[in-house]
Amino acid sequence: MATQRLIRHIFKSTPTLEGAGVHLKRAFGFSEVPLFDPFLLLDDFRSNKPADYLKGFPWHPHRGIETITYMLEGSVEHKDSLGNHGVIKSGAVQWMTAGSGIIHQEMPFGNTNGVMGGFQLWANLPASQKMNKPRYRDITADQIPNLYLENGVGIKIICGSIDETHGPVRDVAIDPQYLDITVPPNISYTHYLPQGHTAFAYIIAGKGLFGQPNELFSSNTEQASSCDSKSSQFLENETLIFFGDGDELTIRTKDNSVRFLLISGKPLNEPIAWRGPIVMNSESEIAQAFKEYQNGTFLQQSP
Q: Is-above-0.85 flag for pTM?
């Protein structure tokens, strides 16, 4: 018998300044990491003001993680210490495995109307893969399957599968799903999720009811502290919903459609030592990484 996933927590994304002065919204980050294992943070960098994003993210290191960048509008130009160079365009995804270490920069640009928008998710690597060779998976918009179900629900599959349709990103240790789902008005849609996997949704347009009507959850929205109980309600843009365990999730709409990212993955259940863009399993490994960065031996792979 299927078990419905219920809401455990609701988070409202908060303004954050990163890089050389990029204004973005952080859906979750460092303080919530034990809850979101194997995921580390999710940033929402949508803006129609070039001053918010043009300073970008100049050269910086990464080790021990994967960064997943999904663009909706505009583009991001990237370069790295291994000689890679490219542009992540609207609708495209870059799945970067930093592994043993990479130094790169990311510079965002708006479209012809100055609109730039996308998301960056950080996923942790298991200890056995943290020092693997860095790897890029650049996925263009036309490589991402776009399903249209009979009830009008649309699903872009970046990673994971629905029935016989598979996303272009495979062979990831945490066995993730990364979906961009749109549910039209007056629809109830139920989606399967692997039991035991961490799962959350991040609303990017419209409004919808997630989970079961009248269930209680804790919230850190402006209306409630993280320990307050609230009953289910229709939730809107820039809201993250974290779910308990189960194998089904139901989303309902009324007069409005809702569009959201649905992300899940298998927890690693490993110790985390995290400082800036480097995530390892112990403080000694973190200290070693920064020592290598300072003395010029950080890169383990040749260009």
A: yes
